[in-house]
Amino acid sequence: MAELHTLAQALETLLEGVSPVERETVALESACGRVLAEPIVALRDAPPFDASAMDGYALRAADAGRRLPVAQRIAAGAAPAPLAPGSCARIFTGAPLPPGADCVVMQEQVKVADGSAEIPAGLETGANVRRRGRELAAGETLLQAGHWLDAAAVGMIASQGHARVAVRRRPRVALLATGDELTAPGEPLAQGRIYDSNRYMLGALLPRFGFEVIHSQRVADRFEATADALGAAAQHTDVVVTSGGVSVGEEDHVRAAVESRGRLSLWRLDIRPGKPLALGRLPREAGGEACFVGLAGNPVSSFVGAWLFLRPLAAALLGAPALAALPRLRACAQFSERTSGRWHYMRVKLDHQRQDGVACAFSYPDQDSSLLRSCIDADALAVIPPNAEIHPGAMIDCLLLR
Predict the structure, then answer these.
(1) Once rounded to an integer, what is the mean pLDDT over residues 209-237?
(2) Contact, 109 vs 65, CB < 8 A?
């Protein structure tokens, strides 16, 4: 019987020798969901000038409590003239303060008549003013290399005037689903066959991790067909992912096919679901190797395996170590579970409002690895140690699926 490896051993094997893919430059409009290949530095102070935080009147705080002539009108984007002592300026949100002004009073507090404004007393210097450099100083590092760009980050980069950014290219993946029983959705379903769900599920999940799926196919349960498909898939990809065919059945040919075309580094884990995981390398004719990840064929095993292994692999290929580990949260179990000799990764739904600020974890009632429905509402994996007995109220570790 082959040795059962730990999750830590599998991750070490998977990531050994993996280095970030090359960089490319993209337009900022295409940067969301990409990973920075180099730091972004602020080109200017933000805000770039003292600006009004609201619609109102700009003045010297020393002139508050008087009726002041309105000397000018300053809209956003304007270049104001210096403010004469003893006067004020009509100003709008985001507009630059005129030189000489040091505060803004909101328009609701001002009475205006005959070209002058009655200003209330008690204004302080800096009131309702967004000071220059409050958010960033020119030359300050805005975002580090390895940062995953979301909408807020893209907006911040745009605010600094960067039109293009250097990012890691998306690691390329080939996705192979093995099994004579598989039928593509939309085709007639013959007796004894099932629809291919794993290839579509993984094809939707992998881009979320940063991969680009450039090839996807079903492979027959034949050794030659499996070996040929693996060899061809490795030539233009960084990673080859298979679903099914890694167990010990007579129709499971993936492990032998990998060994015939490349090298198998690790097989079988002490986890549930996903025990028959296989890891290795497949050579390219032009040089180098593609990573191989063989996921179990049961849908939940493929789903859980993708989060535990393909997400950290994507992080390594993208040079984003902060994305390697799933966020971990302690939660209060609202279920009972007894484990055997393997670590259990249970699909759970978290409720953050149920118990004195501590998240409560509710498990799907049937945790069988064939039931993909258990993953639909799951937002975490509850990590249950081997030979453990969990009762409602026990504190458990959960890995957040994000």
Answers:
(1) 96
(2) no
- Asked if residue 135 is part of any domain, the answer here is no
Helix (H, G, I), strand (E, B) or coil at 195: strand
User: pLDDT per residue over 132-179, tens digit each?
Assistant: 999 999 999 999 999 999 999 999 999 999 999 999 999 999 999 998
Q: What does the block give as tokens for 295? A: 């996921």
How confident is the model over 296-310, as pLDDT tens digits? Answer: 999 999 999 999 999
Give SS3 for 174. Answer: strand
- What pairing do the DSSP bridges indicate for beta strands 380-384 and 343-355? antiparallel
We report the CATH number of the domain holding residue 273 as 3.40.980.10
- Report the helix count and the strand count for the chain, using DSSP H and E: 7, 28
Name the pTM for this structure: 0.90
CB atoms within 10 A of CB 125: 10
Where does residue 328 fall: left (phi above 0), alpha (psi -120 to 50 degrees), or beta otherwise? beta
Tell whether 104 and 184 lie within a shared domain.
no
Same domain, 224 and 270: yes
Name the nearest CA neighbour of 396 among 357, 353, 350, 365.
350
Helix (H) or strand (E) holding 143: strand 141-143
Answer yes or no: is pLDDT of 16 > 60: yes
Whether the Cβ atoms of residue 388 and residue 336 lie closer than 8 Å to each other: no
Give the range of the structural domain holding residue 266, as residue numbers without chain letter.
7-21+171-323
136 belongs to a structural domain? no
Q: Which residue has the tokens 């040091």?
A: 102
Q: Which of 308, 354, 361 is nearest to 335 (CA)?
A: 361
